[in-house]
C-alpha cells in the first residue's frame, strides 16, 4: 500500500529481461513475466501463454496486471512506429491507456479496496513473428452494474462519477448540468478524495484511444443525466389509480422529454388477450424505483460495453498480423460480504473454476516430476481421486447437470416465479441436499443457502436473486431510450440493438439469464486458458485495513495459496506438516507475545 518505485522500475525490468537465468534472481512478477515471454520465444507447444493473477480483493491483482503490461510494453515494444504514422499513438501506449479508462468506468471504492475492479478482465497481448507487440484485445466479464443505483454503506459509485463532478471546468459544469455543490443520491462519500478521482488521466487516455472531445462530452453528459435520474424520488399518490407523485420537480434528462421519461417510469404497459389489447397501469412506488434503477443500469452497462468495443477497435490488428499471444487474467477475487447475492455467486463461481484450473495444473506438474509417483503410491494416493474432489463437488452444486443452483435459478426465471423465496429455498434443499457443499444458515430468518467454497463458506441471500438473474427491462424503457435525441444513446440503443437487451417478454419466451450468459463466457475463457501454457501469480494482502507498510502474519497466513481443502490431503505428509508447522508457529507467536512477556 505504498509504491516502492525501484521495485517496478524500467531498470529492474531490464535486469530480469537480460538475465541468463531470471529464476535465480529474487522472486518477482517480472521473473514470471520473463519466463512467459521466453516460452513464447522457444516456440514449444503450447506457444500461447496465460498468466492468471489471483488473490482476494485489494491484494494487488490489478496493480500486478498493470505492471505486467508495462513490462511487455517495454521488452516487446515494436522497433518502429506503425507505418511511421506520427498521429497514431504507439500500440504499447494505447494498450497501457486502456487501464485508466477501464478503471475509471469499472472500478469503485469498496470496503476492501479503494480501487476495486467491479468486472473481470482478460487481455490478450498479441505478438508477431519477432515477438514484438502488435496488437491486443480485451474481454470483460460481468460488470457489477447494480452499483450505479445502489452503493452499500461506506462504499462508492464507479470512480468516473466522482471524476466528472470534481474535475469538470466551470464551462463543462454548465454544459453537463453539474452545478458546483449539487448533491446526488447516487454519489455517496464524495467528500473522500482518492487518487482515483483524477479526471485528467482518464480524459487523456480516452483521447489517446481515439475518443475525441465531442464524444467524451457526450459520455459525460449522459453520466450527469444518470446522477440526476438518481435524484428522482417518488411518493405514493393520494388516489391509487393515479401515477406516483414526485417529491421534487424534475427537468428533461438524457435528451428525453420529461413527460415521456416520467410516463415510462411510472406507468406500465400491459399487452394481453388474443387481440393483444394494450392496458396502462400506474406502478407502485417500489416499482417506479425499480424502473428508475433499471434504466440507469441498462444505460451504464451498455456504455461500458461500448467503451470496451471502442478500446478494442483502437488496439486491434487482423489475426494475420500476429502469431502468438500472452493472456493476462485479472478477475475479481473471492468475495464474502455480510450479504451476498447473485453477483457474489458468479464471482465465486469464477474463482472456483480458476482454482480448479490451478489445482489441475499444479497436480499435473507434480505428476510429471520424476520423483513423485512413488511418493504418492507409498501413501496410497490416486491421482484421479485427488485432483478435483472438493472443487468438483462445489462446481457440480453451482453449475452441474441436470440439477444445480444455476439450473434451479433458470427454472424459476423460466416459470416466472420470483416472489416466494421460502419455496425456492425448499426446492434447492430438496434437489441438492445430497451435495455436502450445500447448507443453510438456520438462524437467519431470511431465505438463504450456504456454499462451502474452496476458500471458505459463503451465505447467499435468496431475496431478489431470481429477479437479478432475469435482469429484465420493460419495453417502455427501451423505447424511451430509442426515442432519445442524445446521439450516444441513439447509438447504444439503436433499433437493431433491441434483440440484445433482455426486454421483459410479454409471453413466456425464454430469457437469456445472467448466469447462463456468465457460464457461457467463462467456459469460453476456460477453453482459451486450457489451450495455453499457464502461469500463476498469487497476490497476498499484507493487512485487511489497507495500511501502508503493515504486515499482519495471521491475515497473510490465512491467504495461503496452496493449502486449500482439496490440497490439504495432498501430498499428505508434506502438506500436513507445512500446515501444522504454520499454525503452530502462529499459535506460539501469539502465546509468546500475549503471555510470556506479560
Ligand atoms: N505492489 C504494490 N505496491 C504498492 N502498493 C500496492 C501494490 N499492489 C497493490 N497495492 C495497493 O493495493 C491497492 C489494491 O490493489 P489492486 O486494486 O490491484 O487489488 P485487486 O486485487 O485488483 O483488488 P480487487 O479484486 O478488489 O479489484 C492498490 O490500489 C495499491 O494501493
From TrEMBL:
GO terms for molecular function: actin filament binding; ATP binding; microfilament motor activity. Signal peptide: none annotated. SUPFAM superfamilies: P-loop containing nucleoside triphosphate hydrolases. ATP binds at residues 55-62. Transmembrane segments: none annotated. One of its GO terms (biological process) is actin filament organization. One of its GO terms (cellular component) is cytoplasm. Keywords: Actin-binding, ATP-binding, Motor protein, Myosin, Nucleotide-binding, Repeat. Residues 1-598 form the Myosin motor domain. InterPro entries: Kinesin_motor_dom_sf (IPR036961), Myosin_head_motor_dom-like (IPR001609), P-loop_NTPase (IPR027417). It holds the Pfam family Myosin_head. Belongs to the TRAFAC class myosin-kinesin ATPase superfamily. Myosin family. Actin-based motor molecule with ATPase activity that localizes to the mitochondrion outer membrane. Motor protein that moves towards the plus-end of actin filaments. Required for mitochondrial inheritance during mitosis. May be involved in mitochondrial transport or positioning. This is Unconventional myosin-XIX.
Amino acid at each position: 500500500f505504498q509504491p516502492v518505485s525501484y521495485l517496478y522500475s524500467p531498470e529492474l525490468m531490464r535486469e530480469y529481461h537480460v538475465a541468463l537465468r531470471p529464476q535465480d534472481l529474487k522472486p518477482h512478477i517480472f521473473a514470471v513475466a520473463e519466463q512467459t515471454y521466453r516460452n513464447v520465444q522457444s516456440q514449444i507447444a503450447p506457444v500461447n501463454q496465460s498468466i492468471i493473477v489471483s488473490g482476494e480483493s485489494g491484494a494487488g491483482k490489478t496493480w500486478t496486471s498493470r505492471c505486467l503490461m508495462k513490462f511487455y510494453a517495454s521488452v516487446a515494444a515494436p522497433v518502429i512506429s506503425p507505418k511511421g504514422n506520427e498521429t497514431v499513438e504507439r500500440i504499447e501506449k494505447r494498450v497501457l491507456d486502456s487501464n485508466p479508462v477501464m478503471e475509471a468506468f469499472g472500478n469503485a471504492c469498496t470496503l476492501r479496496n479503494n480501487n476495486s475492479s467491479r468486472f473481470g478482465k482478460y487481455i490478450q497481448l498479441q505478438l508477431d513473428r519477432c515477438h514484438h507487440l502488435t496488437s491486443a484485445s480485451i474481454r470483460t466479464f460481468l460488470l457489477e452494474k447494480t452499483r450505479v443505483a445502489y452503493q452499500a454503506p461506506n462504499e462508492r459509485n464507479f470512480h468516473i462519477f466522482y471524476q466528472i463532478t470534481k474535475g469538470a471546468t466551470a464551462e463543462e459544469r454548465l454544459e453537463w448540468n453539474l452545478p458546483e455543490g449539487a448533491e446526488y443520491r447516487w454519489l455517496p462519500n464524495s467528500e473522500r478524495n482518492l487518487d482515483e478521482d483524477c479526471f485528467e488521466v482518464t480524459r487523456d487516455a480516452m483521447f489517446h484511444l481515439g475518443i475525441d472531445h465531442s464524444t467524451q462530452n457526450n459520455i459525460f453528459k449522459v453520466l450527469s443525466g444518470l446522477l440526476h435520474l438518481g435524484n428522482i424520488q417518488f411518493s405514493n399518490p393520494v388516489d391509487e389509480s393515479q401515477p406516483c407523485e414526485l417529491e421534487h420537480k424534475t427537468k428533461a434528462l438524457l435528451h428525453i422529454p420529461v413527460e415521456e421519461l416520467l410516463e415510462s417510469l411510472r406507468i406500465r404497459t400491459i399487452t394481453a388477450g388474443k387481440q393483444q389489447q394494450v392496458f396502462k397501469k400506474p406502478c407502485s412506488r417500489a416499482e417506479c424505483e425499480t424502473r428508475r434503477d433499471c434504466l440507469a443500469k441498462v444505460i451504464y452497462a451498455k456504455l461500458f460495453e461500448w467503451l470496451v468495443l471502442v478500446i478494442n477497435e483502437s488496439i486491434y490488428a487482423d489475426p494475420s498480423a500476429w502469431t502468438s499471444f500472452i493472456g493476462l487474467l485479472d478477475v475479481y477475487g473471492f468475495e464474502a460480504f455480510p450479504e451476498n447475492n447473485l453477483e457474489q455467486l458468479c464471482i465465486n463461481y469464477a474463482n472456483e473454476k480458476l482454482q480448479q484450473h490451478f489445482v489441475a495444473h499444479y497436480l499435473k506438474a507434480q505428476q510429471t516430476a520424476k520423483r513423485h509417483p512413488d511418493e504418492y503410491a507409498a501413501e496410497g494416493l490416486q491421482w484421479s481421486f485427488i485432483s478435483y474432489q472438493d472443487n468438483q463437488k462445489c462446481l457440480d452444486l453451482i453449475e452441474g447437470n441436470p440439477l444445480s443452483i444455476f439450473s434451479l435459478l433458470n427454472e424459476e426465471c423460466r416459470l416466472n416465479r420470483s416472489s416466494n423465496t421460502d419455496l425456492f429455498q425448499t426446492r434447492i434443499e430438496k434437489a441438492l441436499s445430497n451435495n455436502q457443499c450445500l447448507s443453510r444458515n438456520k438462524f437467519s430468518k431470511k431465505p438463504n443457502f450456504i456454499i462451502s467454497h474452496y476458500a471458505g463458506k459463503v451465505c447467499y441471500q435468496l431475496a431478489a436473486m431470481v429477479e437479478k438473474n432475469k435482469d429484465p427491462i420493460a419495453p417502455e424503457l427501451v423505447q424511451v431510450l430509442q426515442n432519445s435525441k442524445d446521439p450516444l444513446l441513439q447509438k447504444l440503443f439503436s433499433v437493431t440493438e433491441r434483440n440484445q437487451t433482455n426486454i421483459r417478454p410479454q409471453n413466456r419466451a425464454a430469457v437469456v439469464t445472467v448466469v447462463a450468459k456468465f457460464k457461457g463466457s467463462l467456459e469460453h475463457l476456460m477453453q482459451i486458458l486450457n489451450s495455453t501454457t499457464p502461469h500463476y501469480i498469487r497476490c497476498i494482502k499484507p493487512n485487511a485495513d489497507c495500511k501502508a507498510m503493515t504486515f499482519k502474519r495471521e491475515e497473510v497466513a490465512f491467504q495461503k495459496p496452496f493449502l486449500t481443502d482439496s490440497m490439504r490431503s495432498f501430498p499428505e505428509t508434506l502438506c500436513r506438516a507445512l500446515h501444522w508447522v504454520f499454525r503452530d508457529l502462529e499459535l506460539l507467536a501469539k502465546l509468546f507475545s500475549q503471555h510470556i512477556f506479560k
